[in-house]
Amino acid sequence: MKKILALAAAGIMTLSMSLSAFAAPSVDNGVKPAGTPQVDGVVNEDVTVKTDVIDMTDASDAADYLVDSVSEDAEIIQAVDVKIDGVVLDGTTVVTIPFQVNGVTTDTDLVVLQKTADGWIEVPAVIAEDNLVIVSVKSEGPLVFAARGVLGARASRTRSPKTGDVILLAGCAAALGLAGVKAGKKRIH
Question: Which CATH number, 2.120.10, 3.40.1800, 2.60.220, 3.40.720, labels domain 28-157?
């Protein structure tokens, strides 16, 4: 009986440690180019756009700008570094880029910021459809996609489980294991 109880407790503990992997599907909050860019209003197949995700701590000055200049309840959805090849960006050329931005809906009050030599500026952006944002920029550099209204931004994303989210389940499994050990000891004595 002791061996069966020990195996059962070990199985429960093993399952409780991996349970968080099944809690929610992985969410890709990435921002990716979603079509052919336009240069000064003309589709240009020679222009390529690449994005690299920026760590949110590196975009903390954008968060400060959002609160101070845009809206106190704005929240950053995603930050990316944009590289544009195949066109000379002289400050007057406008490149219009369609981006796939997961979690953005037509109801999202979206703000797009770009970091320039003068600091963060708001750039023109239109939500064409759910998850598709058309952004017009005059230079390369970091872009921050943010939503006004914290509830709107949070409602559009799935919450991934965090490390401490399984503490209650782990505690219950530990209590069950201890109860089983105690019951096993009573039976033996």
Answer: 2.60.220
User: Does the pLDDT value for residue 55 go beyond 90?
Assistant: no
pLDDT tier for residue 155 given thresholds of 50, 70 and 90: very low
Residues 6+ apart with CB under 8 A from 5: 180, 181, 183, 184
Res. 64: pLDDT tops 90: no
The identity of residue 134, as a single letter, is I
> In sequence order, which ranges of the chain are alpha helices (DSSP H)?
2-18, 60-65, 150-155, 167-188
Query: Would you kindly state where each structural domain of the chain is located, as residue ranges?
Result: 28-157
pLDDT at 146 over 80: yes
Asked if 96 and 134 count as a contact pair (C-beta separation under 8 A), the reply is: yes
